[in-house]
Structure formats: C-alpha cells, structure tokens
Amino acid sequence: MTKKKDTTAGNTRVLRTKVKKKRGLKESSRRWLERHLNDPYVQRSKADGYRSRAAYKLIEIDDKHHLLKPGQKVIDLGAAPGGWCQVAAVRTKSSEATPHVVGIDYLEMDAVPGAAILQMDFLDEQAPARLVEALGGEPDIVLSDMAAPTTGHRRTDHIRTMHLCEVAADFAVSVLKPGGHFLTKTFQGGTEGDLLDMLKRSFRSVHHVKPPASRDESVELYLLAKDFKGRAPAGD
Ligand SMILES: C[S@@+](CC[C@H](N)C(=O)[O-])C[C@H]1O[C@@H](n2cnc3c(N)ncnc32)[C@H](O)[C@@H]1O
C-alpha cells in the first residue's frame, strides 16, 4: 500500500512515505494521508509521546510567551485527543491526586495524567459551572483549541469556529483570575470587530500568534490575550 524511499536532507536521512494511487481512495484523501505521514511534527509527537501534533503549537507559544507555570490552574476547551492537556499538566506540575488542569470535549478521550476530563459539549449551559467546579476555583489560564467539525463549506466552517471562539472568550473573562491569560484558536481575518475590542478592553495586551507548528497553508491563527484586568466588583 505504501512504499518508503530514503532521501537525504542535509546530514539527516529522511524516510519519505509514498501513498500509492489506488481505486477507492480519493486523490484529496491520498494527498492528506501522504502529507500526514511525512509531517515532521506527527513523527515527533509519536517519538515524544504526545497525543497530537497540536501539542507543539502550545509548546511553541508557551516557550515564547511563558504562560504556564507550576501550580497554575488551567482550563482546556476542546481538549481531545489530549495533547494540550499533556503539555499543560507537565508544565504546571499538576498531579494525578489533585489535578489543576481540566479539559473538556464532547469526544471521548483517554485519561491524561494530571488532568481531569469532562466529556460534554462546551456550549451546554451547564459546562462553565462544571468546569470551575472540577477545577476547584478560578483558572489562571483558559486555553481553547476548539474547532467545529468541517462541512467543506469554508464560510460556514469559519462562522462556527468563530462562534466557539466568542463563547470561549466570554467564558474566559467571566472566570479568569486577575493577571490570567486566554489563548484561543481563530482564523486569519476572523477576530476583528467586537471580539477583539472586548479582549483589548479586558486584557493588558492582545497578540495574534502563528506558531511554526501551525501549517503555513492553514488559515488557522491563535489569539493570545495576556494579563486579565479583572472584573468590576459586583454592584458597579
Ligand atoms: C483541534 S482539536 C483539539 C486538539 C487538542 N488541542 C490537542 O492538542 O489534542 C479540536 C477539538 O475541539 C472539540 N470541540 C469542538 N467543538 C466543541 C464543543 N462545542 N465542545 C467541546 N469540544 C468541542 C472537537 O471535538 C475537537 O476534539
């Protein structure tokens, strides 16, 4: 089905996997599979024991912006298959006995050491309270890598994922501790207008970030809002 060919890149020997054209496999699926099998981040994630290549996006963003620190409480929205939870649990030194990383996804996923996982839809009206309850208090960081399932209709996909991004942002400003951070997946051109204005009012700095692990050809972009100013006291 596949054949491997040795090529040389600099001094490193690279094994390239070719996926043969065959009946029943659409050309677009064949190309996707070939790209996936030859993706260095996919190969690294297997070697490093990460559940997803997405783990490296958080690693690269955190290495640059220094968000995750030992002892912090973290909420991870759209957690499956668990790469970001793995990174957050290790970097915050979250323990299995008292996890201070909580992930949520409507997909079932394997347990992640140091993280508590809720299998539910984040858009369920009970999700925010369940997350804070599972965490045992307000988070220092809210992460969201949520993406709506793709329909093939680009505009529809953007609108759905932007809706998730907006609900995640509202959640973040309603639960974060002062000084906390919010990182969310978005799209190029997606976070203009009201959402960006709200984040700029609520956080001391807002950055668009494209980590190297996010494919150049992808319109995916991350929005990082740092240093939450806090909520006005009740009654103001
Ligand atoms: C790109 S994946 C996340 C990958 C993850 N960061 C990792 O490192 O393994 C996006 C996830 O968002 C989840 N998702 C999308 N909409 C959701 C919703 N309304 N509630 C919970 N999870 C959702 C999907 O099920 C999917 O697993």
- If you average the pLDDT, what whole number results? 89
Count of all domains: 2
CATH hierarchy class name of the largest domain:
Alpha Beta
Radius of gyration: 19 Å
Bound molecules: S-adenosylmethionine
* Fourth-tier CATH superfamily name of the largest domain: Vaccinia Virus protein VP39
Instruction: Give the % helix.
Output: 25-40%
Query: What spatial form do the alpha-carbon principal axes imply?
Result: globular
**Largest sheet features:** 7 strands, mixed
N→C terminal distance: 66 Å
Fold-level CATH name of the largest domain: Rossmann fold
| SS summary, helix count | 7
Which series of helices and strands comes N to C?
Answer: EEHHHEHEEHEHEHEE
Examine the secondary-structure arrangement and name the CATH architecture of the largest domain: 3-Layer(aba) Sandwich
Number of E-state strands: 9
Class from secondary-structure proportions? alpha/beta
Percent of sequence in beta strands: 15-25%
Parts with pLDDT < 50 across at least 5 consecutive residues: 5-12
Major beta sheet, strand line-up: 5-4-3-6-7-9-8
Lay out the secondary structure:
Elements (H helix, E strand, L loop, with lengths): L1 E8 L2 E8 L7 H11 L2 H9 L6 H11 L8 E4 L5 H9 L9 E5 L9 E5 L7 H9 L5 E4 L9 H22 L5 E7 L5 H10 E7 L10 E9 L8
Helix pairs in contact: 3-4
